[in-house]
Amino acid sequence: MLKRQKGYSIATKSVKAKLIRSKFDMQETKDAYNEIVHFYFLLIAENPQGVSIPVQSNGGWRYYELLTAGHQFINGFPSPLKRAAIRQAIGAYESWNSTYQKWLNRPKRMRHHKPPIHPRAFRFNPQYDSGMWKEDDGFSIVLKMRVGDAWKWVKHQYQCPHISAEWVKGSPRIQVQNGSLWIVFPLEKYVPATGGIKGLMSKSAFRTCGVDMDIDKFIIIATVLETNDRGETTEIARHFINQSRHIARRKRDLGRIAIKMRKSKIVSRGFAKSKWDSITAREIDFSRVVSRRLVEFAKHWKADVISFEHLGNLRPKKGKFSRRSNQKRAYWLKGKVFEQVKRIAYQDYAILTTRVSPMNTSRLSPWGDPLWRGVKFPASPLEFEDYQSGAALVATVNGYKTHSGLNAARNVALKAIKRNIPEAELNLKSLK
User: Fold this and answer.
1) Are 365 and 384 in contact (CB under 8 A)?
2) Which residue from 97, 62, 96 is spatially nearest to 82, judged by alpha carbons?
3) Please, are residues 409 and 221 in contact by the beta-carbon 8 Å criterion?
């Protein structure tokens, strides 16, 4: 894999490819690998002192490899796969040990809880380090695998999405899932170091993309603000991403599930599983589509930072099943879009992502004036009414009129800017 270089950071991701069978069963290799993991897990449980010793001092996986040198049980097992199994066993032991330590220090009200026991079996997928694979050309790969009582080199074909030249492949992991074979490659590439958000905002001019996320018509309302070193801020571009069709399909499926529940009167585990799986898959796919569209918009307008609201305490309201379930998934989608945007923007374009407090982003204008909010702009300042939560239009007595989501997006971007340039102020003329 890549080595660290000055002026660059390393972005990581993985790609999953379909591994085509060649009349050989990978389950034998997986079973043999997990037998070795179990063997070393029991050894580590008896001799845990090697876990705390650095590998450079013959500790860690090296300690247990030397301890079992010449052992009959591992005789003939490939060294790269054995070392991967030792590292897997160390991780499994540390996971068990942390749970055990929590049990030892449990409060009095939990004294009746039983101690965690050692795993009786493992189902890890084998990690193919260097020496266990060769001749990877992007379409086929030669893997060393267990065939009967021997280890043999077997060539496999695989179907993989296109990987650009800037990404470097690492050693793969083989997954055996429901009778299908998959090969997962870790990928790394160099990303120019940005110096952090504070470094980006110390330039003579920079651009910030503010994002407001709604749960009704528009999932994304974005604006790009350009700020110079004097704090003068102008709006460059706006973007709306509609989710009406997605919401309609989600509500349709939730309604069908609710009808089935009402008819059957019995809701057990696995109820309407195919419909739930369809909803989940659609939510994940839509989050990726929305995230990619937002990142491409920010890249097109040369944004340096993308700013979101920090909405971590959203909870669905009490009510009917379909309404509550729809809100629950809408809130989940908000968090998923942020995670995807943060990953895609940095990996592909070195754009950083941040979050700001949502306080008053919808109740105040970008200049701190209280907002009127309703469904129709008033004809005169005398007709301004009380604030209507959820309405699409906002205005002030000074003549500022806009969409409520766009106003919130401007405030979100300005909050990120004012962390480093407190005197920053949005130019009203740039909004017309």
Assistant:
1) no
2) 62
3) yes
